[in-house]
Amino acid sequence: MSQNNTNFFEKHPKATLTIVVIFLLMALYGICSLKIINNAYTEFESKSIKTIVHQYYVGKIIDNNVGRFIKLREHRPNQEKFERPSRNYIRNIAPNSIERKYYRVATDEHGFIGPSQIHENPDIKIVFLGGSTTECLYMEEEERFPYKVGRALESALKKKVNSYNGGVSANESMHSLNVLINKVLPMKPTMVVFMHNINDLVILRSHGEYGYPDSLKSHLQTSKNIFTRYEFAKEPKPVDEQYITREFQRNIETFIAICKIRDIQPVLMTQANRVKDDPLYHRFNELIREMGLKHQIMVIDLAKEIPANTQYLYDSYHYTAKGSALAANIITKQLQIIL
Questions:
Q1: Which residues of 29-58 are buried (b: 16+ CB within 10 A; e: fewer)?
Q2: For residues 291 and 306, what is the distance between their CA atoms, to the nearest angstrom?
Q3: How far apart are CA 222 and CA 216, in angstroms?
Q4: Which of 1, 96, 198, 286 would you call most buried, defined as having the most Cβ atoms within 10 angstroms of its Cβ?
Q5: First and final C-alpha spacing in the chain
Q6: Nearest alpha carbon to residue 319 among 331, 309, 332, 333
Q7: Measured between alpha carbons, how far is 55 from 224 in angstroms, rounded to an integer?
Q8: Of the ranges 41-50, 66-75, 77-86, 170-179, which one carries the lowest mean pLDDT score?
Q9: CA distance 300 to 266
Q10: How confident is the model at residue 204 (pLDDT cuts 50, 70, 90)?
């Protein structure tokens, strides 16, 4: 009788153990990626369990003791990590434009992508602020244009130059304004170079404004969980193109005003691209040019200077190593005029 009552799991303990292990591994993978319960754009996509748990408990401590706070979206200071583009990412860009391997991202004490602090007491400090198009994640450290500009200017001007890469994937101009006020101003830089467009446009089209509390990217942070969306609104608002264009303009003018008040030289850059069918995107670049003329500051027009082909841009917005080198050359020649 006892044999008849024995179930499958008792008869096959090794198979049972294998099945349990497989399910646990699947669950662990799901928790790590969170793709099974969240949309494709998630801050947790490349984070370890340890990082997720740490962020959760730190968030709880802040909620219990502070409440809401402004989040500084930056790379963690004094960190070394290695980023690799996903297979899906590679499939959606120009063939053979970047290699699917691990790229080193090492930050300095301020969270800027290095090499940055070449000199302890530089003659010139230049900070580049922007999103992933400034960050230049998928290339070697010495190929990223903010670094190359610093080295080229040092050679041309015969002065000690530190250049700081403050680009962070998915950051829009309001994030960079927070970084400018809370991190860059105490550094007393000589110059800040500001390049934004597509991330602002995506957010403004989705949310209609820069205030979007129900997102992991929101500026004013409250408690979040794994179901909190990363970027896109559940129900996008009707787009008022005139209003969102004015909002983008205000952020640019805020950047210029802060820099001038603090005796920092502001520089704007348009965003090089391979975009053909988005008039509003091109209007944002044109607005950058207009703000430069209005406020009599330099605009480095990368959108006009860099050819819109796959040699220089592996997708609609991001540089190949060759594109980064060309951008660095253009920026260096322009900055020499005013430094």
A1: eeebebeeebeeebbbeebeeeebeeeeee
A2: 21
A3: 9
A4: 198
A5: 92
A6: 309
A7: 10
A8: 41-50
A9: 11
A10: very high
> pLDDT tier at 36 (50, 70, 90 boundaries)?
very low
The number of angstroms, rounded, from the C-alpha of 20 to the middle of its chain's C-alpha atoms is 39
What is this structure's pTM?
0.83
Q: Are 292 and 268 in contact (CB under 8 A)?
A: yes
Could you give the CA distance from residue 179 to residue 202 in angstroms, rounded to a whole number?
A: 20
Task: Give the residue among 208, 217, 291, 218 at the shortest CA–CA distance from 255.
Answer: 291
Can you read off the two tokens belonging to residue 305? 């200077």
Residue 75's nearest CA partner among 147, 129, 146, 145 is: 129
Highest mean pLDDT among 45-59, 60-74, 220-234: 60-74
Average pLDDT over residues 126-143: 97
**Cα torsion for 319, 112, 216, 214, to the nearest 10°?**
-100
Pairing of strands 265-269, 80-83: unpaired
Residue 268 one-letter amino acid: L
Class of 73-212+224-338 in CATH: alpha beta
Strands 220-221 and 69-70, sheet pairing: antiparallel
